[in-house]
């Protein structure tokens, strides 16, 4: 590990020693038992031991090593086993299953930690000259297999960790723009911005363990995107190191200068170069920030309310609504002592029952407001009328505040579940509003049918997470009880039916996780074969030797999901 | 001409028989006289006569003609002289000067009017198979030389007029999306949408004479973009016919599916294919729509107010402010009987004088509001406070309403002026807010210096036209008194210093007019050589034979502005 560069545990999400706990959440174990039949209170095997892994040796040649050491210094050219294993994967559940099973795939031969853009330029040229493969690495939180070399890659594989490029370089206070290095992690960046009274307002679930460069390379979106925009809106200019040249896009609010090169770099997942810095929209910290909580009789009522909020004069910073099962999950995850726990309190329950609601079908919603006290009051009034018109009730600020505090802890639960033979993952999509209900109903049904056919127990739930004028993102979480040898195949079936359901119900392959290898089999259906043709021409034209993270987005061989499942 | 397909006059803007008039505008002639020394009341030469042109013969071969007739029918394969001349140019002032002088350049050999997407598919393949060149044509309002074949093009040149593809195909009322054919003109489209209670909200100056497909191909922006977005935001899906295949991007509110193919088609100016339809965001007609007018002591105060409006909780649908000279121009253009004329009325003048304002420096502003009556009142209150904080005064709704009615008539003035030896044109750019004042001051100064050096009289004025979180578009209009043989060279100097000033002051080549050949010399400076490299690889990969509107955006030979000026 390099001082000052955060690194996740090799076998799971986040910080070493930190994990999910169900203590003080008395309803959680019964909820899991009811949903998938697993007793999470039973004893579990100990954490995987690094010493049990068989780590293939680095294939870095002495020639390239010498050049890289000359550019970066010995300390920043790492070939030790743990560093290479950490950089071999993202944190998709497929990655977690494989690394736990000791299936390491094609590890990088070296991990580099450049300390300046000039060093990135020099290392890119050195690696290309040596016919190597370059894979940029941010926080390592990717869940679509965008960080892994191709199986059987014979060239030297170089992972480039941008973690030392972590400074907010400049804030243009008049324009509300900041120039920030690409390797900065979310919390560090916000600390630097907040200290000067500013915020980016970009808060993906992965916030603690992801970087600005990673957000750009994957077209990330944060929880407050309804106000602050997706990363594609936030990024106004950027610098990307390419073989032999540097792309410099100056910060511009808008431009008509041909096909957007900015929008080609966004989502490029390392296939065009290594992003080293970006100019991003930043905002003054809001005077007031409030998350208001509501309940609806059903998820469909909640969807309808969100659609109407988007068509109204109100512009909240977030609007989120969970389906019935996710609502049960949230309430089961509430601490005994917390207000989420008390949501099912007699008083609220009585109101719901009085309204004739089926408590198994209720949908919980959070709507966020920011601005002056007057503005927040005004917008809350607009939203409140829409909530009421759709039969919803307000339950105040408590649950939203708690959600806000705990929002980044969710990913830890996957490791906890995997320890107990439960495969958990997420898939998200957007559709026009007209198909929002349909894609939810059909995706849940197809997942359940597929699990029934295999004969395993599984559960899927969902929330609407981001809204747009013409539609919304729905974010599905699924859990499958399978600790057999067929675990990976079971997962593949689940992932496959969900992604195909997205395609069949007017959705896209991903709203903000990217394509990687995991989603590449659906690209033809998503953007049509001609769209894939255009992307391929772009990649082949810029990188004819396929040195830049080859195989991602457009896969020339076996597509990721089949490929990996056959490897397993 | 084809029935149902609008066509502009061959020698100027818009409808035959319609022109600018200064009658009933007693202050206009003195204003022009004062600014550039030209007496616009003097007698003018008669309009150009088509019969005076020497029109080169069509080089369409019998083979290709036969195939095209088989696909489209005789009526929709036009090779007559006037049709070919109309389709040879856009309406840039360079185009107008050349066509008036009988310098026709490389005319298209044939103009096609397909009636369906299937016909577009068949004609594209036929033209490519015959090694021809395809140039898509919408309303013909382009001002950056994007519609003209390369001088000396030896292959058959085919202009494809999309005007028969003019229907709103479908409105998805739940999603606020409409599927619309690309050849529809602005007013026809709004009529079709309004009839069902909807609007696109996209109102560029060229609205009457431009089409949906043209807006997409050039990254257009309308006057209400602060609310409705640039066309890049509005377009959610599209269909584009490419050689041998059709690109189909389904309507999606947002997506993370690699480099954005949608954003590659936007601004592609015919270099990737022919756009045949698009899915666009549409909105319910607003309950209330108001344009409020304000005055500031100086343009700089007005800029500051717009910047603060964007940083505030208010979100008006437009905010526009004119510099001192443009304010004088607007007032000079007011009809004797109109309220704009009365703006300089004693009462308002007295208020301004009481505030110590220099009446030569005042800046006029329009801010637009839409929504429920409550919402409009709320936002007007927020804006009003910002206007006051910057020393501005409100003068009510009158001037804005009048501006709104006349907003599409401005382009006719260029022909009127050209008749009188005055070259008029526009150039627009965006910068971050931090450089808004600087780019205005420097561009005006450099233009004046350049005109002084040549020894001609010229005037340039400007308004802020579109606002974003991080900056704004400023739209410059210039007029030069030169009816000599050096007219074109004089124009080139003016255009060149303005564009170079944009580059030197943190601006972009264009905010919404596109690149064409006119702006291609500045692309290296705008998006860096690596950005041009990426665009070139995209074009070359998709169209290796350079059949699709070659020479636009990236020019392989002499860049447009020099090229055309040497032709002149």
From TrEMBL, chains A, B:
Q: Which organism is it from?
A: Tessaracoccus lacteus
Domain FAD-binding PCMH-type span(s) in chain numbering: 104-285
PANTHER family for the chain: ALKYLDIHYDROXYACETONEPHOSPHATE SYNTHASE, PEROXISOMAL
Family per similarity comment = Belongs to the FAD-binding oxidoreductase/transferase type 4 family.
- Alphabetically ordered keywords of this record: FAD, Flavoprotein, Oxidoreductase
InterPro entries in alphabetical order: Alkyl-DHAP_Synthase, FAD-bd_oxidored_4_C, FAD-bd_PCMH, FAD-bd_PCMH-like_sf, FAD-bd_PCMH_sub1, FAD-bd_PCMH_sub2, FAD-linked_Oxase-like_C, Oxid_FAD_bind_N
A Pfam family reported for this protein in Swiss-Prot or TrEMBL: FAD_binding_4
Name assigned to this protein: FAD-binding oxidoreductase
* Stretches the record annotates as Disordered: 549-568
Work out whether the entry's keyword set contains Calcium: no
